[in-house]
Design goal:
4-stranded antiparallel β-sheet, 48% strand, 7-stranded mixed β-sheet, mainly beta
Length: 123
């Protein structure tokens, strides 16, 4: 049974930083495409960052490039999202996602395993 548990969200002032964590169980993070998505009220989920299974290479949405960094720790079976220079537009619920996909593009919310999410609020 695949389970993803996010943590690290909270409230922060504009320009601040947060680090989100996602602990995985039931599978190995290095064997699936891992992603971070976010959803603001009234909006569809949007991909923020993803990391390829076979080489750990990360890709980012244009809106977060240069500010967010996704990483993977296979020993801890976890992925992380380091967020810096946060802005009010980054306010959303952030979800950790694992999917058996090619990992060269974003995917829809009907695909993969999704965590419960962690709220990030930037004011």
């Amino acid at each position: 049974h695949v389970q993803l548990v996010e943590s690290g969200g909270g409230s922060v002032q504009a320009g601040g930083s947060l680090r989100l964590s996602c602990a995985a169980s039931g599978y190995t993070v290095s064997r699936l495409c891992m992603g971070w998505y976010r959803q603001a009220p009234g909006n569809q989920p949007e991909g923020v960052a993803r990391i390829r299974a076979y080489d750990g290479r990360a890709s980012y949405a244009d809106s977060v490039k240069g500010r967010f960094t996704m990483s993977r720790d296979s020993a801890k079976n976890a992925v992380y999202l380091q967020m810096t220079s946060l802005a009010p537009d980054d306010t959303a619920k952030y979800y950790c996602v694992a999917a058996n996909v090619v990992c060269d593009r974003w995917w829809g919310p009907e695909i993969g395993y999704w965590g419960q999410g962690t709220q990030v609020t930037v004011s």
